[in-house]
Model the fold of this input.
Amino acid sequence: MEKFICIPDSFQGTATSLEVCRIMSRKISEIYPDSEVIAIPAADGGEGSVDVFLKVFGGEKVRIEVKDPYFHDISASYGLVDNGRVAVIEMASCAGIPMAGKTKNPEITTTYGVGQLILSAAQRGAEIIIVGLGDSCTNDGGCGMASALGVQFFDREQQTFIPNGGTLMDIRYIDKSGLAKELSGVEIITMCDMNSPLYGLRGAAHVCAPQKGADSEQVAHLDQGLIHLCTRIREDINLDVSEIPGAGAAGGMGAGMAAFLGSKLNMGIEVVLDMVHFNDIARGAKLILTGEGRLDGESLCGKVVDGVAGRARALGIPSAAVVGGVGEGIDGIYEKGLSAVFPINQKPQDFSESRFYTEENIAFAVENILRLVRALEK
Done:
């Protein structure tokens, strides 16, 4: 029996990874009716990651009241899988860009609610907490999250406060001694973009803060704040986060996860692949199908297609990426292990039009990949 693996990312705004898996699986069953199809919805830590884990592993969604980016009360959720042993949290659920509304301002938004979700998961007995960074509207270096977990930040008057992006420069001392005891012995794993330094021209503020509403003057101020936070972490916690790949992810949240919680930063897709024992289930497959909405240079920095390509190469299995579009800088993806890239659009349409035909276009591309594979067998 032939075996096929489907492990795509979402086509953001048009199809979830679950929907793409369904389309791919259906087409494989049509062309190879007697085959075994293993579908694994994938995510790299951004919005939708909790649903992916719950779909793959089963479990429950826990909903609690936390603070939103502007410190208003909202209802947010996280997932519990493996009989409650593992919790999965998306920071986007309470600090995501859509929550910033029309008044985006990364100088005042906070990650406090993320800390509340982490604490709730620990209180419910989770032994492993996976936190997905991405799609955030914040630039506070994870200080809000840390404050919710008992870390104290002191200003020049020796008063405690909850720093946000605009007040990182006011931190004079950090005290971790009050970190919630519930976190003792809990392993915290961070899923993030590993190509994001904390500060500088490629850092959190310069690259992402403009998308979160910052003008050029604010970007400079936010960057200086992250530099100052790095200094305080080095002096007060004895950790140099400037050297940690991924420290700048989600407005410096990567640095905060490492410094305040001792978390290891991981490429999101690698966490998923390890959790599902990908190497074991994919071994012997005829073809691995992956994909995402847009494949470009950033995709080579730990996104889903990148991670899957590396595993496929290690296993000696051909792999193909079905993508909505192709940008610059993808040549390296072949060196990573991907066999081929197939854009899906059947007509020369703008995305504003083609987005309504995503399912049809994905099905068309997958069918033709499989027809070619079958023809080569003859």
